Amino acid sequence: MSDTHPGTTSNYRPDIDGLRALAVMAVVLFHIDKTWVPGGFIGVDIFFVISGFLITGNITSDIGQGRFSIAEFYQRRIKRIIPALVALILVTLVAGQIIMLPADFKDLSLSSVFSVLSLANFYFLFSVDTGYFADDSTTIPLLHLWTLGVEEQFYLLWPLILAAWGTRGYSRLVLAGLAMVALASFLLAQFVAPSAPMTAYYMLPMRAGQLLAGAICLMAVRHHYRDARLPRLLREMLALLSLALIAGSLVFIHEGDLFPGFLAIPVTLGAVGLIYVGSAGGSLVNRALSFRPFVWIGLISYSLYLWHWPVLAFARYLAGDLDLQLKLICFAIMMAASILSYRLVEQPLRRTKASLARIFTVYFAVPTVFILAVCGAVFSTGGFGVWRLDSSYVAQVDQMFRESGSSTSAPYVCQRFMLRDDMLTRPACRINASEEPPVLMWGDSNSGHYVGTVREIADAAGFGFRNISISSCPPILDAPGQYASVRFSDSCDTSVDLVRNILPNYDHMILAANWENHLTRHGQPFITSLGATIQALIDDGKTVMVIGRIPQLTQADPTCPIKALRFPFLQCAERGSVDRTAIMEVNRIVRLTAESLGATYLDFNDYLCDGTTCQGLIDGQPSYYDRDHLNWRGSERLGEAVRTDASILALFETFLSADGPLPIRENTPSPALTVNPDLSLMDPSDWRATALYRSGSNILLSDDRAASYQTASFEVDAATLATYPDARSATLEIVLDRPRSVFPMVRVRLDPTGERFEFLVDGETGRTLPRRDAGETDWRESVTDENMRLTIPFDLPAGTRSVMIELIPAASAPGQDYEYSRAHTGSLIIRAAALEFHEE
């Protein structure tokens, strides 16, 4: 974040200010909307390179002229960094007192102390339970100051190293040694990031590579190529390549990638390349970067970097996700604040000629002591600050905080990342039972947030249960760690080993998990493992109930009703609404898997959703802790709502019966086909599909993308047709679960004639609608409450090379006049499908 400005040196480089403008705008736009510049966070790496180049240049120039002073260096750093930083922190504390809730204001106060001491990266690494890119991190006002911590820690050591080296010069061997150290930094980041991503992101050893790269560039230019002007064509090519490296990083690197590490090398080389070309004669790219508007943004880049994040953080703290209008308003505010900071704080105060002692006292010591005093007062009031004077407000906040806490804060919810033996016998984990009950509720955090709900049902139905939840670990008996994140894989396997040991103690099992996450990440292998677990439990004589997934909201702020005490205009009930379709598809796959094996399936989404929209409200009250989980009171509120639902109580009555596993639904086995099948179409591996699952003897096809059709196709190729040389016609018969919310399409296509037959299946009315030339076939349909059977005979003209059978799970929908649209989403369950060939 450091720079050399016009008037401070004759070596001023406007193209570097332009490069700084590119860096800061990339960061700002990324933080406004991550989709605008997916890799915008790499702007920080450009800043580090620039800082390493310029500061090393200042130090080595002073050393060469025999006037370098450590005291003077830190005096310049204080004048450059501290005034604008202190102004930001003080304004942020005032805004935090007005806007933030007590716990958050306490965190802000503590982060202020660490930030003014250049230790923000340590604070956020060890005290914030979120990643830099996590949703919750977007409302932490001073999170971005970790970069200043990294820089200032580097400049505690680097000037001392350069001063100790003195005027001996920097041979190519020395530069090679520094390059090896920089490379080691990238290697260390690559090694650390998989297991400790935030350590790699926040800490100096993994960030020193970029700072050293800038320093090496300066040394190379000054000591080896001072007067070397590269040929123009070479300069232009090198500049374009450098710009391409930066642009490629901005576009193709995403927040979920392993970063920093090797992925940080291209942007580092790109920044070094542009700076080097500017030192070796320049290029069109350097001249473009010297364009006055770019230079102007570069000049205010430090203030813009300081102010952009708190403006966005406070806006998101109050409003949640920002629409385009709010994003533009935030951009205008941050620009105005940056200009004021630059003109009223940065520029005037950096020109002072005061002594080091006075600068240290006035610019650093006094503001730091003041900030410490303010933060001490905040802590003494429990984070309330001046709001502590309003006793009614304090009481309301305390009560509402208790109710909006996570489900794990309830004393009866037993959830850990790693189970211990005592949790398997702990009385608090035993609900509605004085002795060990016959029911075990087991799963991940999604099981934990249902404990309050099942607790209410258990009270109404008269049974007891023990609950065990293993965070990020699904209820899978065989190698569950493969479905947990890398960080928790071992603890997942170890914890499930403990669960496996106590299973003989229970007759009934309730399973719940974040099925959506596991299906998205692992697909069919997870469904297979879930089915195997359910089957193993049933084979062991247990009854099994599987609870479906609640909708994942687009956003959730459990403290919004508390914030609304001060800001009544907040529309808490309207936040985070989501279409129900996606979770319906996930739960349909889980339900099919469970019921096809004889387990009971249950979900509570009718109580969380109104028609096709889910808002996370129960009895009109926000009941989510985050986007994925119910809060403590929300879980209980859901239980209070469903405990009088006769259908749910009947499900539990059947589940708890002593008659052993539940019978399989009558329609679950594949219905008998009326054709004499020559070719079965029930092997999922024979289908080409983007979203296909096997569940028992059934196949489920899914279309979960509104932007396109997701089709599935089964090809009877020439080799297969050759095994039926006398076939002159064929009959396709397919039995589907009767679709209700969307209409699938079945198509038969012949090659090379191009002849095709299409049928739109309307499960709502029980009709099959022929499309294209399908009316010329002697197609037949039969309908039951559960199934639809479609029989399609068709001719095989001489020379037919292949028969393609295609399915679109969601081609149309009720109320759409049978018009096809890729925007529909849904699933299609195939219970039986076969092809019969005829010689006549």
TrEMBL record:
<feature type="domain" description="SGNH">
    <location>
        <begin position="426"/>
        <end position="642"/>
    </location>
</feature>
<feature type="transmembrane region" description="Helical">
    <location>
        <begin position="357"/>
        <end position="379"/>
    </location>
</feature>
<feature type="transmembrane region" description="Helical">
    <location>
        <begin position="233"/>
        <end position="253"/>
    </location>
</feature>
<protein>
    <submittedName>
        <fullName>Peptidoglycan/LPS O-acetylase OafA/YrhL, contains acyltransferase and SGNH-hydrolase domains</fullName>
    </submittedName>
</protein>
<dbReference type="InterPro" id="IPR050879">
    <property type="entry name" value="Acyltransferase_3"/>
</dbReference>
<feature type="transmembrane region" description="Helical">
    <location>
        <begin position="324"/>
        <end position="345"/>
    </location>
</feature>
<dbReference type="Pfam" id="PF01757">
    <property type="entry name" value="Acyl_transf_3"/>
</dbReference>
<dbReference type="InterPro" id="IPR002656">
    <property type="entry name" value="Acyl_transf_3_dom"/>
</dbReference>
<keyword id="KW-0472">Membrane</keyword>
<dbReference type="GO" id="GO:0016020">
    <property type="term" value="C:membrane"/>
</dbReference>
<feature type="transmembrane region" description="Helical">
    <location>
        <begin position="173"/>
        <end position="193"/>
    </location>
</feature>
<dbReference type="InterPro" id="IPR043968">
    <property type="entry name" value="SGNH"/>
</dbReference>
<feature type="transmembrane region" description="Helical">
    <location>
        <begin position="81"/>
        <end position="102"/>
    </location>
</feature>
<keyword id="KW-0812">Transmembrane</keyword>
<dbReference type="Pfam" id="PF19040">
    <property type="entry name" value="SGNH"/>
</dbReference>
<feature type="transmembrane region" description="Helical">
    <location>
        <begin position="259"/>
        <end position="282"/>
    </location>
</feature>
<feature type="transmembrane region" description="Helical">
    <location>
        <begin position="36"/>
        <end position="60"/>
    </location>
</feature>
<feature type="transmembrane region" description="Helical">
    <location>
        <begin position="199"/>
        <end position="221"/>
    </location>
</feature>
<keyword id="KW-0012">Acyltransferase</keyword>
<dbReference type="GO" id="GO:0016747">
    <property type="term" value="F:acyltransferase activity, transferring groups other than amino-acyl groups"/>
</dbReference>
<feature type="domain" description="Acyltransferase 3">
    <location>
        <begin position="15"/>
        <end position="339"/>
    </location>
</feature>
<dbReference type="GO" id="GO:0016787">
    <property type="term" value="F:hydrolase activity"/>
</dbReference>
<dbReference type="GO" id="GO:0009103">
    <property type="term" value="P:lipopolysaccharide biosynthetic process"/>
</dbReference>
<keyword id="KW-0378">Hydrolase</keyword>
<feature type="transmembrane region" description="Helical">
    <location>
        <begin position="108"/>
        <end position="126"/>
    </location>
</feature>
<keyword id="KW-0808">Transferase</keyword>
<keyword id="KW-1133">Transmembrane helix</keyword>
<feature type="transmembrane region" description="Helical">
    <location>
        <begin position="294"/>
        <end position="318"/>
    </location>
</feature>
